[in-house]
Amino acid sequence: MTITFIVSSSVAPSDLKNSNFKPFVVPSILPQQQNETRKQSYKLIQTSLEDKDIYLNVGSHNSFVMTAFQCYSQHHQLEIRPDDVWIAICTQFSNYVNGHSQDLRNKFVNFEGKKELTVYGSGTLMSANYVEMSREMAFEIAKNIKDPSVREWIIPDFSTTTPTDRMCGAVMLMATTKSYFDFKFMLLCGLPSVTLHGTVEDWIKLREKAQKLLEFDLKEGHMTKWSLMLFPILDQFVNSAKGNPDTEWWNRIAHTKGGGSGPTYLSGWITAFCVFDDKGRWHGDEKSKNDGWGRIFESSEWPIVDLDFVPRGFVNVPITVNDNGVTYKTEMFAGHMCSMRGDEEPNVALKPRVDWAFFVVEEE
After folding, report:
1. Closest C-alpha among 8, 166, 33 to residue 90
2. Which superkingdom heads the taxonomic lineage of this protein's source (predicted)?
3. Does the model's pTM come out above 0.70?
4. Helix, strand or coil, per DSSP, at residue 307
5. Concatenated DSSP letters of 76-93
6. How far apart are the first and last CA of the chain?
């Protein structure tokens, strides 16, 4: 639901195209605004801001106040949500609490000093799900303050509230209580365990079979390039099967970056199995992505693949079947189509399946 009303009938709305607002650039603005005297550099990890072309720097370092001011002074129509007002209130409240933290201590906690709160997550510095971890931290704060309902009070819950609003609300809660708590995000490795089926000889045979790929190389050298990625992976499989797993290497199997309204990219050594697309085109050299904000998602070894464009794990082939004089067009599919629960730990383990399917192709 929205409501629009006229405030000044004598004032015509002006076109934003005629304004002199500059684009908003996160990496170059936020650190200086936070503290212009700090001699530190900042590297942006993640942000809810996706398409830089639509964001405007309206001046100062408070877009809520300055948007209202610019709309008033330059005759632009103002749009506002309950979330905008509430976050503005919470920002001021956070400043108030931190400015009077000792006087307000007994309102929030029943201990002296600061307590460390830890939330565990998966991924790396660049790929971790900080939205989820911030949400979990808000729950940890609620467990450790006198009035747990403060969490629900601060985090917005209007009909207009977005996941970004809730994320910001969680950070507001953290900032409000930072005089009483230190916050830690603990990133853990993504693979609890790995089970390799088959004998050591099977894994050695797999490595030996892959060697023949080089016989099919062309002038572009794609088989050679692929083998430089693939063969070390197969060697690691052999070593692991022999009882000498490199757990650090296994934990580099996959990681992601991006999301929101933009693409999510997959990297890690598993992408060595994604170097050719469905048309056989080579993508193994794509090892860095620039998102337009100056952030580069990169891997020194492995290709980077858009999760929406991971190549198919199965093949298909047309086959003509002659059933006692009656001819049918058919198509057979085979390869990795789905996964299933693991054999060793069915409640927590997954394994890929190799399957096939046979179809009659009927003309409509």
Report:
1. 166
2. Eukaryota
3. no
4. helix
5. PPP---HHHHHHHHHHHH
6. 45
Domain ranges of the chain: 81-188, 200-309, 314-360
Q: Alpha helices, DSSP H only, in the chain?
A: 26-34, 63-74, 82-99, 105-108, 130-144, 149-154, 163-176, 200-210, 222-241, 247-250
Q: What is the pLDDT along the chain (364 residues), one digit of tens a residue?
A: 778 756 566 655 655 555 665 555 555 445 455 555 555 666 777 777 765 555 555 455 666 676 677 666 665 677 788 898 899 899 999 999 999 999 999 999 999 999 999 988 877 777 788 888 999 999 999 999 999 999 999 999 999 998 989 999 999 999 999 999 999 998 875 777 899 999 999 999 999 999 999 999 999 999 999 999 999 999 999 999 999 999 888 888 887 766 544 567 788 899 999 999 988 999 988 777 655 444 444 544 788 888 888 998 888 888 898 888 888 898 888 988 888 888 876 677 888 888 889 888 887 7
Q: Are 271 and 304 in contact (CB under 8 A)?
A: yes
Amino acid letter, 82: P
